[in-house]
Amino acid sequence: MELPLMETMIAVIPARGGSKGLKDKNIYPVAGKPLIAWSILQARQSACVSDVFVSTDSPEIGAVAHAYGAVVIDRPSAISGDTATSEDALLHAFDVIDECHGVSARHALFLQATSPLRLSHDIDSAIELFFREQADSLMSVTAAADLTLWERQGDLWRSVNFDHRNRMRRQDRPVQYIENGSIYIVARDVLRRSANRIGERLSAYRMEFWQTWEIDTIEEVGLVEYFMRTKMNV
């Protein structure tokens, strides 16, 4: 697809060092490549993305990102701690990209390195949907129709997405969606105004349920690799 006239879509991948659940998670080997490499390559293969940036406080992550073709943004320590948000990194990235790289973008594609189960086709389709619906933000989702959720409130259990007293057939339930963390698009002015990746004109790009999984622990590496082999042919 062609982007609207005068529009530029950059990709930003925030990737802090010092992960706790899985040591060096963002560069941990997954299906033969460092984890972050998959998101960089998927963004570079997109027909709609002009430039790919990785925001990191880690020289090791930065070296890997550079090797796979991303432009590295050095993230200050003030927005690199455990309490820092991805929105902090995105706002900083917008400013650096504008001031140091001469790219003045109104929107950014935000990819989480821990969610590699996406295709470049997904990125292009999400961008096309974002502009077609004239949204100010977009998130990728997967349908949760097969999940029956409960929550505990004190000593009581309560059914969340169904009524256990009047169970409907699965196919008759209203469809609810999981925010799967794989693809986001946000307008720069929304991010600056609200410090939130989600704006008022939100669009949702639907992905397959197997694309829900992400890597936060060692146990999830094998699961994600299985889907990469069987669904993505890597």
Strand line-up in the sheet with most strands: 5-4-1-6-10-7-11
Count of alpha and pi helical runs: 6
Radius of gyration: 19 Å
**At the third CATH level, what is the topology name?**
Spore Coat Polysaccharide Biosynthesis Protein SpsA, Chain A
Sheet with most strands: 7 strands, mixed
What's the number of domains? Answer: 1
Structure in words:
By secondary structure, the chain is α/β, with parallel strands linked by helices. 29% of the residues lie in helices and 24% in strands. The chain is built from six helices and eleven strands. The strands form three sheets. The protein has a seven-stranded mixed beta sheet, sandwiched between helices. Strands 2-3 form a two-stranded antiparallel ribbon. The protein has a two-stranded antiparallel ribbon with strand order 8-9. It starts with 8 loop residues before the first strand and ends with a helix. The mean pLDDT is 92.
Short characterization:
With 234 residues, this protein is of the alpha/beta class. Helix content is 29%, strand content 24%.
Layout of strands and helices, then pairs:
Layout: E1 9-14, E2 29-30, E3 33-34, H1 35-44, E4 51-56, H2 59-67, E5 71-74, H3 86-101, E6 107-111, H4 120-132, E7 137-143, E8 150-153, E9 156-159, E10 177-187, H5 188-194, E11 202-207, H6 218-231
Parallel strand pairs: 1-4, 1-6, 4-5, 7-11
Antiparallel strand pairs: 2-3, 6-10, 7-10, 8-9
